[in-house]
Amino acid sequence: MTKYISIIFTTVVLLFNSCTNGQSKPSGPSIPAIEFSKKITELPGAPLVDVRTPGEFSQGHLKNAINYDISKSGFENQIASLDKLKPVLVYCLTGSRSTYAVRYMQSIGFKEVYELNGGMMKWRASNLPETTEKTTVAAGMSKQQFDILLVTDKLVLIDYYADWCAPCKKMKPYLDEISRDMADKVVVVRINADENKALCKELKIDAIPVLQIYRNKTLIWSNTGFIEKEEVVKQLK
Questions:
Q1: What is the pTM of this model?
Q2: Interval 85-110 mean pLDDT
């Protein structure tokens, strides 16, 4: 993680439990709830990103939203999986966390980010609908969230692992190196199989470690079991 990202996340961790310290000055197109609702309709293919915690998300969120918790270290990888040239909509509870998210997204090259001014508080005050649909609750990654990770012009290297898995632990350092050294053309996504059982079942992942490479949302390579870094890099070139 870069020094810039670390600064943002350190600040956000101090704020994320409440997101109620007053609205920060908008850093991008910050629009009122009614207009934000219309924008969702106008941009049906645009990712709608809820940057709150999974607990907040499960209590009520906008329909079809994906939950990328800005207080977690994996947030930057999730955001990096989105297409920077296409519109993205972002919100939190009152606007503080979404403002940090917009600033970060703009800093890495996102061109069109719309922020819900006042967050869920203003959305609810405007009597707009929300949902608690189980299919989008982020207790584990949904198939919809997984599919969005593949929407990128880079190669996507998926690592299915578990904390107790010895080969997984042995592979993690070189996967971190690939993520850092090949960041211009590869996005590395690590998926904890224990925390994403439903997703693994849907994707027919029945062993670990498993590495997969996707190009343009298409699976082009897969490996089950331990594999050396050189072999993985060969597949990425």
A1: 0.51
A2: 94
Share of the chain above pLDDT 90, in %: 52
Query: Could you list the active site residues?
Result: 165, 168
Chain-centre distance for alpha carbon 54: 12
Query: Is there a domain that residue 143 lies in?
Result: no
Number of domains in the chain: 2
Which residues make Cβ contacts (< 8 Å) with residue 150, sequence separation at least 6? 81, 156, 214, 217
Q: Kindly report the CATH number assigned to the domain that includes residue 88.
A: 3.40.250.10
Distance of alpha carbon 119 from alpha carbon 219, whole angstroms: 37
Q: Tokens at residue 138, please?
A: 């982020």
Both 220 and 171 in one domain: the answer is: yes
CA distance 63 to 61: 6
Question: Are residue 19 and residue 116 in the same domain, yes or no?
Answer: yes
Whole-number Å distance between alpha carbons of 38 and 11 = 31
Cross-strand partners of 157: 188, 213
> Would the pLDDT of 9 be above 70?
no
Contact 82, 74 (CB under 8 A): no
Domain that holds residue 57: 3-138
Please give the DSSP secondary-structure letter assigned to residue 135: G
Q: Are residues 110 and 164 in the same domain?
A: no
